[in-house]
Amino acid sequence: MTNISVRDMTIAFGARRVLDTLSLEVKAGEFLVLLGPSGCGKSTLLHTIAGLMDVTEGEIWIGDKNVTWEEPSDRGLAMVFQSYALYPRMSVRQNLSFGLKVAGLPKDEINRRVDAAAELLKLTELMERLPAALSGGQRQRVAIGRALVRQVGVFLFDEPLSNLDAQLRTDLRVELKRLHARLKSTMVYVTHDQVEAMTLADRIAIMKDGIIQQIGTPYEVYRQPVNRFVATFIGAAKMNLLKGHLVVANNKTTFVREGYSIDLAGYEFATPPQDRQEVELGIRPEHLGQGEIPLSVEIVEPMGADTLVWASANGVTFAIRLDGEREIRPGDTLPISIPVTHVSLFDAATGRRI
What we know:
Blueprint: E1 4-13, E2 16-26, E3 31-35, H1 42-50, E4 57-62, E5 65-66, E6 77-80, H2 92-102, H3 107-120, H4 136-148, E7 154-158, H5 166-183, E8 186-191, H6 194-200, E9 203-208, E10 211-216, H7 218-223, H8 228-233, E11 240-249, E12 252-257, E13 260-263, E14 278-283, E15 289-302, E16 306-313, E17 316-323, E18 333-337, E19 344-347
Parallel strand pairs: 3-8, 3-9, 6-7, 7-8
Antiparallel strand pairs: 1-2, 1-4, 4-5, 9-10, 11-12, 11-14, 12-13, 14-19, 15-16, 15-18, 16-17
Family: Belongs to the ABC transporter superfamily.
Keywords: ATP-binding, Nucleotide-binding, Transport
Organism: Lacibacterium aquatile
């Protein structure tokens, strides 16, 4: 198992800095997901680790070796791209073995590695087929197998499932999770799909504008987002946000908004609350309880196991996740409560958690 260390790295194109003094530590054997919207720099970071882009400033270490200026082939890693990039006139076996033949490995060793990868990825019965005779999921498994046969310590994935339909993505997520559990290799995975990130990652690094906003376990980034961006980017539907202000008096802090208030006793403040501080209170759709705030149901979205309801009061619309067995219709009144145990507070001006 091999760790990755990105140290004060800057990537610039002329005057434009895509990544600016970014640092990241990936633990040996970890499955780290780089998550963020398009254009946030996550693929640039991955390609730079792979050696496909040059560093403007900083260093990249893989294990105990400084690979900042090493060629991709000398970095001890393998990469799987969004496109399958299979050789169309080669069989599955030939696609898996081609890179090893070019590297000059003995035939017996090539066969051993290819057969082992095929068994692991359930490709054994497909070995003589051409790519045109494979499904999208099977082609992506071949692309993954082509990386596996190299038997390196680090695997990089650049949105490998984005071209697949929803069911295939689900199936291959499970396969990738099993693969990591068996290989225990270091894996870095780029996606803009938060479901992929939450289900695959040991830790998630959430990026925006070339900056890592938060890095933590799926539980940490979901339950304790460090700022408003992370809070609203993670979660479907996204976190509900209510504008208001704090009243701090007599050793008590209260969130106040348009005629109702929430006692914040028990909330763990990241920074000391200030009286009259303008804030946004966030709570996820599944954490809203039954209570005294009446909402008018506008839209009902049945999703099988649960139901997503959009309801409003006083010009504010809430997303509420309910049990799928509960019957509810547009026009119904839905009384809710906001339990402080599931609340996040953000400074209205900076967006930082308080």
